[in-house]
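Q: Structure tokens for this one, please.
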Amino acid sequence: MPTFTLLFVWCFLVQVIQEAVKHDKCVSTKSTAADLVTETDHQVEELIISTLRDKYPSHRFIGEESSAAGEKCFLTDSPTWIIDPIDGTCNFVHSFPMVAVSIGFAVKKELVFGVIYHCFDETLYTARKGHGAFCNGLRLQVSKEKDVSKALILTEIGAKRDPETLKIFSGNIEKLLKAHAHGIRVIGSSTLALCQVASGAADAYYQFGLHCWDIAAAAIIIREAGGSVVDTSGGPLDLMSRRVVAAGTMEMATYIVQQLQEIDYERDDHQAH
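A: Here is the predicted structure, written as tokens:
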């Protein structure tokens, strides 16, 4: 199983991240001033890809930092690893301990399994298609809440911070608060927020502006925990669309879809079209 190869390198990866968070970081920006990257992001991604490529030389790889460096980002029918070496880079830069490594695996464009490791909480989320979802070996089960007035909802703001985007982002939150949601939370890590939906700690999550490496592992973990993951249009999830709604129930996901105003982001696979 590929999962064993991943578990073999976790310990070293976590040591690298936990040690690096104690020291000054060399921080650069990518698409915007809020889109950060550090030398540790590159180091972790290179280690993951090199380890997996040695064992699976015919497989494809989509990595956050290699894509930012110009490698084309698109799904084919080939077995493909989808990697976020440090999800929550801004958190990592500020030593805010909501940081994760996320690896999803797709075959014929279908997600087969996912692994997410919370680097500072020592929690390992795993799922394999048809075999359930687990956190440190304990089976995960989503919330069955259907009523938004009893819901805790998570979201994140993407990298765009122009006035129109901020207006829509705030407006979407306002709509859900006016519907008397118990609360809206932003924790700075899409993958860990989605894991809260899988565990039943949160009832739903939505976002515009995340990437395929933020969604891939978490999507199968939520589905295997009994939840729903859809496009913000209400249709099937499109990994490359940079938008998602996830919830414990389809009723909750549908309600949130109906409230949201779209924020436009360029697709991850725009270079392939």
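A few notes: The two ends are 34 Å apart (CA to CA). The chain has eight helices and 14 strands.
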